[in-house]
Amino acid sequence: MWVNVGSVYEKDDEAGIAHVFEHMLFKGTKKRGVGGIAKEIDEAGGYINAYTSTDMTVYHLAIASRYFDTGLDIISDAIQNSTFDPEELKKEELVILEELKMGKDEPSSRAYEELLGTAYEKHPYRRPIIGYEKTVRSLTREHIIDFYRHWYVPNNMVLVVVGNFKTEKALQKIKNSFADFKPSILPERKIPVEPEQTNIRTKISYDDIKEANLNFGFHIPALNHEDVPALDVLSIILGQGESSRLYKKIKSDLNLVNSVSSYSMTPKYPGLFLVGAALEKEKIKGAVVPILKEVYLLKIKEVNAEELDKAKLILESDFIYDRETVQGEAGKLGYFETIAGGLDFEKKYITAIKNVTAADIKRVAEKYFNNTNLTASVLAPQTGENNIMSQEIISLATEAEKELQKTPIEKTADIRVGEIIKKILPNGITLLIKEDHEMPIVAIDAVFLGGLRFEPENKNGISNFVAEMLTKGTTTRSAADIAKEVESIAGSLDAFSGKDSFGVKAKLLSRFLDKGLDLISDVILNPSFDKSEFEKKKKEILLTIKNQDDELTHLVSNLFNQTLYQKHPYSRDMLGTKESISSIKKEDLSEFYKKFTVPENLVFAVVGDIKLDDISVKVENAFKNLKKGIFSVPEISKPLLPETNKSSTIYKEKKQAHILLGFLGVDNHDPDKYALEVLSNILSGQGGRLFIELRDKQSLAYSVTSINQSRMDKGFLAAYIGTSPEKIDKAIEGIKNELMKLTDEKVGDEELERTKKSMIGNFEIGLQKRGALASEIAFSERYGLGFDSYKKYAGNISAVTSEDILRVAKKYIDFDHYVLAIVKPKN
What we know:
Elements: E1 2-3, H1 17-24, H2 36-43, E2 47-52, E3 57-62, H3 68-81, H4 86-105, H5 107-119, H6 133-138, H7 141-151, E4 157-158, H8 167-177, E5 201-207, E6 212-220, H9 228-239, H10 245-253, E7 259-265, E8 271-279, H11 284-296, H12 305-322, H13 326-340, H14 345-355, H15 358-368, E9 374-381, H16 390-405, E10 420-424, E11 430-435, E12 441-449, H17 462-470, H18 479-488, E13 492-497, E14 501-509, H19 513-525, H20 531-547, H21 552-565, H22 578-583, H23 586-596, E15 602-608, H24 612-622, E16 646-651, E17 657-664, H25 672-683, H26 689-697, E18 701-709, E19 716-723, H27 728-744, H28 749-766, H29 770-782, H30 789-798, H31 802-812, E20 819-824
């Protein structure tokens, strides 16, 4: 359900009310109590969620088609009959305040808010969607009811239904469900018009963070303006992907930033063209001029045909990928109808994209990219030297424009450029094939055993280092060549490294299959581990290791693993340490990689718009030079149960505390893993015990969940909560109480069946995308579970009984051998 109201329609003294309302809509109706909606959705194996934007509020529900009536009844009941209980409102406001604190602790989120708050002086886009602590605390049930009566009326809403159903029958049911829902006159929408900007605006902030954020914004028109297609194409060329201009010049060539990108933000009202970079504090002053010069060069030099065609293809392919799931299709249709002006938007937009010329790119750059239309913001670490002042930003931006005037005006020359089958190829590669011709998409996963578990202690992080290098050059392709080819086929190509494996995954349009397969096989067979790329990547990894201190959930996760696993490889960070990465040589990467890239260790899964015989021959030819080798899984000491309870704490001066409490779990071949997974799901999710008790009832957190991981060696069962520092003891006590309940008494039949249905439904929904299925079958086969294990998932989960839950709870929830990790402020 799309509702035509977002934060833009709020008054200043009620900032955040649209978001608070969104939280409250599922908090009980006249016939469904608090938690009843989540419970019923779980029982039907679906999921329900919502989000608030500047212009819209959206409630989305995914459910098996056989439960269509249930889903419709829930949506119509929530929209028409929510009670907005005042006590629940108080609790939910506390939850939202925790969410607000979480956003303040996230540097990139805060930097984005500060840029918008500076770029807009009158328009409501200047306010954060979540509002402010003062305004959220001030909202009462009367405010919520008033907001509901004004905005939640049928003539201000669009219901989108996509899936397996009979249209006429569904339409009649929808009409009956909303028969008593009467339209009314909408309030007059008086949105302040943002005055034209005439001078550079700046915002400089400092905080206890490791990495700086440098952001630029230029005012641009709203979504339906004729210039938007050209601006969208421009944003791809300038700053999206490794072959983009900003990435190649600012990151690869000049090494001034850790990441850089651009984005054309075009909501319902005039938006911003955004350019953002994450970088070290001492590089800020040196980065401003090169970044702005790269932006301003678009005003005097036309882009070449290759860049133009690549960007158009990427934008067009995004619409194809969106149609892969019913959720994606529904979201797209809702957006078109409510924000974009009608269901014919896609056709018009794609046509407009195809018609964009190099001259159009130059024209819009000249029109919008100038210093009088520029806002710049900096959020930087408060420690150290090299602080930057607003006047310095202004002077550097002026310098960028002056340098641009020296650049000769010239035109860049154009440059034209059913069923899963398992086969063992002659050299020993395991090939998995699934034909699916519904969409012109192909997903590929190539998985090797490897990863963190297989690393020498003194080379911690080497598997991730190897994966990061795979797309950075082969014996015949440079990193830039690879990035350019990936974007030319409207696809993605990523290497990965995890706890027990590493490899490569790709997604592409099927018409580019031959090119894509040639590229993927080259990346796997012929990585060059180029010396210059090696040195650049080492510096990047070391910077990431340094800067991840700002990511508090990552910190608490690492601390938990270190405390639980001790000397086992799972105790280590997958990125490695400053010492281990510094010691790794280029030759170490080659040696490690060769050890694992033998055919017997490779599972290659292809899912999508392919033909069985055709793809078999192509894969065999592509990998014919990968010769048979010898591979055996090395034996290492197994993780041990902690001898006693263990607790570890890290102090960070942030607004929230982050807590993980957990226990040693099972490996992925242990039959207990299914019962533990059900147990974990009983605790987690919106209908879960932790959420209901610690968030809904006690308002201790915005984020609370349970985690169950099974790996090649034993994983863990844990509960996580992010809370205010003064609530730490109460939060830990609350987690323990909910865990103890599971060891003391059986789970009720209704709760158990609801949880199992939800798990099965979510699992099946998650496999809609070709990439998700390719990953599922590849990993399952490589870990020895069988490529078809996903087909047995529903049966294994359905077979779990309340006796099983009680048994595994008593076995694994052991309060004499638990681990507690906390990241919190010192005082």
